[in-house]
Each structure stands twice: as structure tokens, then as C-alpha cells.
Write a structure and sequence with these properties.
Strand order of the largest sheet: 5-4-6-7-8
Shape: rod-shaped
Radius of gyration: 39 Å
Largest sheet: 5 strands, mixed
Oligomer: single chain
Bound molecules: zinc ion
Distance between the termini: 98 Å
Strand content: 5-15%
Number of strands: 11
Length: about 260
Amino acid sequence: MRLRRRRVDAYAAAPSWSSRASTRRGRPSPTRAPPGYLEWGQVGGEDGGALPTVHVGSGAQQLVTPEAVTVIRYAARLRMVPPPSARDALATFVLVAALRRRADDRFPYLSTGNEPAPVTKDDPTQGIDLEKLRREAAKYRQELRAGRRGADMVPPVPVSPHNKRISEAKSVDVRTVLTRLGSSSDDGNLWHCPRPSRHSNGDQNPSMKVYGDNRTRCHRCDAEKVGPIRLVIDVLGVTPDEAASFILDSDRVVDMRPA
Ligand SMILES: [Zn+2]
């Protein structure tokens, strides 16, 4: 027995195993295959069944003998008969998976222990092939990732001319739009409402306030702050497209005027 960093390697009889394998999901080291070749083994369940059977302690004290490690690690296929308690079953599975793992996982079959002896290496009657499930799940995850990558490669869709026009209209100064609607202001902040008929005195005292985010609100007519498009829609009773045309084309008229 010797210490190598934090890992304790113990050599006993032919097989060797690492104490670390039982406490942490790692690779037992050093690895040396036992003489002979075991095609199938079983961990847990009744002794004297169809297969060479080894046992591991359940619960916190998971005692693993060198013989058990050899079978669990080196059997080409392994049936695992879980203990009755779900907690012990999971602990046993984690231990078995850690012992079997080499470059990649090699999960056992989940078995009752009562299946007849397997006739081939990949006998489908030996219980649930957890390794097959694991590989299929990994493949499925890979396909999902590939699918997402494909979606990311779709080039951005350019903004449609229609939406661009609406967006342009929204960015026109709302005070320009108010002027265009026949409204006026003494200070640029408070404006006479362009819907005077809705006000008892024709909005002699200006009710519309212009805010810094290019929105405005008449405290009598508007439930909330509105931008250029919604203002024109409400004042003129037009559609959003017509409102955009009103705003943008009015600008063009203004621009064409001689300075
Ligand atoms: Zn108003």
C-alpha cells in the first residue's frame, strides 16, 4: 500500500482497486484487468443464480471487496439487482457506475436477478439496459443542441418597410405632430388639446403635457401617455398606417417649404 497524493492504492491478490472509487465517482487506479474474461456478471440479488454474483454493502457503509470490484468493473455486461430501499438502490447504482466507468460511462442493466442466463452479450431479456438509455439520452441532447445551433445561424430578418415606416413616424417629435394637428403652446410643454370639442371651454387652459420620452397626455382625453401614432389615431380617427402617413408626409410637406 502506498500513498500517492490523496489517493490510496491498495493491492490485494490479483485485482487492485482504489479506495477513492467507493467515495467519489472517479476512475479506479491503477487498472489491471483480471486474467480470464467475464462476459456477464451480477451485483446484488440471490447467490447461486444464473450469473457470477457479487455484493456491495448498502447504506453509508458500502463495503466493497476486491472480488466485487473485479466483477463490477471488468464484466463486459453487468446486471444490477437493486436493494429494496430506493435510497440504497441509488447509492449502489452510483457506486457501480463509478467502478465501471473508464473513458466513458458503462451503466449496468437494471435487473430483477430472476432473468434466465443471457445467451448473447447484448441479450435484451436481462432487464433495463441503462447504458443504452444513457447513450440515447446523450444523442438526443446532442440533437437538441445541434437544432439550437441551426436556429442561431438564421440571419436576422430585416425590418419590413411597413414596420420601418411606423417606427420612423413614432420617432418624429410629438410637438411637431401636435402643431400639425392644429395645436399650439406658449412654452413648449403645455399644449392646447387638439380635441377642443371634448373640453367644456375648448381647452382654453392648455391640458396637454409633453414628456421627455416623446409622449404626451391630455389629462381629460388620454387615459395614459401616448406617442405620435396613437395621438393621431385618436384625434383624426384613422388607422395606424394612415397615422404614419399623416406624420411622415406632413414632414415632407414641411421640408419642401422654402426656408
Ligand atoms: Zn383633451
